[in-house]
Amino acid sequence: MKPLEIPEAIRLQLVDAAHAGAPLEVCGLLAGREGRVDTFYPMTNADASEDHFTMVPEEQFAAIKDMRDKGTQMLAIWHSHPASPARMSDEDIRLAFTPDVIYVISSLVAPAAEALRGYAMIDGVPEEVAIHEI
Ligand SMILES: [Zn+2]
């Protein structure tokens, strides 16, 4: 799996969103072209939960329409882990239905080098995808 490239400005948006939403999980979509993210679409966590999330469908549809208008693709589904490492939880794995996206998790408790990680679901098993800062 090719690495996902995320510019520093967007990494900072993810950290800010994760902190702003804590202790609840927050979520969003990352879009761009050819594995390079150029837009973060923050989404409301309809569950308002500390350990899982559900995106609001209307917000998802609006983001996907905007991607179509701009000619970009949904590259990743992002959410925060306010109190756990940046690893796919059992629930994350169970609910990872969307094909051909990378699941990106920001942890607020992991050391900086492990705070942002990406995973591709391969036959139901998460495999880490490198995230490159650009
Ligand atoms: Zn999670």
How would you describe this protein?
It is a single chain. This protein has a single domain (8-113), classed as 3-Layer(aba) Sandwich (Cytidine Deaminase, domain 2). 25% of the residues lie in helices and 36% in strands. The chain is built from three helices and eight strands, in the order E-H-E-E-H-E-H-E-E-E-E. The protein has helices at 8-21, 57-70, 90-94; strands at residues 4-6, 27-33, 36-43, 73-81, 102-107, 116-122, 125-129, 131-133. Zinc ion binds at residues 79, 81, 89, 92, 105.
- CATH top level is Alpha Beta
Fill in the CATH topology. Cytidine Deaminase, domain 2
Rg from C-alpha positions? 13 Å
Secondary structure category:
alpha/beta
Helix percent reads: 10-25%
Ligand set: zinc ion
